[in-house]
Amino acid sequence: MKGLQPTYVRQIGEYTVRQCVQRDLSQVTTINWATLPEHYSDFFFEELLRESPETFLVAEKDGLVVGYIMCRVEYGFSNIKKFSLARKGHIVSVAVLGEHRDRGLGRALVEEALKGMKIRGCGEAYLEVRVSNQTAIHLYEDLGFRIASRLEGYYRDGEVAYMMTFYLT
Predict the structure, then answer these.
(1) Cβ(98)–Cβ(120) under 8 Å?
(2) List of domains in the chain
(3) Which residues contact residue 167 at a Cβ distance below 8 angstroms, ignoring those fewer than 6 apart?
(4) Banded model confidence at residue 3, pLDDT cuts 50, 70, 90
């Protein structure tokens, strides 16, 4: 993976959304620690990049990574169709540094990750979001996600999460 060049996906003003590459992971983990209460091991970031590079994207400006989305592709019971099996994309983590928010980067990262899930053969996508994160909930709803369930005590600090789902047509 170290020799791979990033694949450019989309331009958003002065920002570029592209596939993450190995050398971006230190900046991605720094963003994760700076912006989110949920943290993951270095191995987990590496595993998701290796397993599904089409759904692990970064937003950058002037060579600096300022946001990311990482997802995994899973196979199991559908979150949308009862008693069905599905190949589904799980949005594990999305973050944009504070000074780069409100510029459409979060939206672009999610939209492009959903395209990557389609490439990987997923029929649906899902994510968990804190009920207190109204900004993210509104973004996801605007993109077409729907609240499927409420997950009591989902986060380590006891906060409730919504599971939100999206049908990939």
Answers:
(1) no
(2) 8-167 (3.40.630.30)
(3) 80, 123, 124, 144
(4) very low
Residues 62-89: what's their mean pLDDT?
95
Rounded CA Rg of the chain: 15
Nearest to 22 by CA among 45, 41, 44: 45
CA 10, CA 59: separation in Å to the nearest integer?
9
SS in 3 state form for the chain?
Answer: CCCCCCCEEEEECCEEEEECCHHHHHHHHHHHHHHCCCCCCHHHHHHHHHHCHHHCEEEEECCEEEEEEEEEEEEEECCCCCCCEEEEEEEEEEEECHHHCCCCHHHHHHHHHHHHHHHCCCCEEEEEEECCCHHHHHHHHHHCCEEEEEECCCCCCCCCEEEEEEECC
Q: Which amino acid is at 43?
A: F
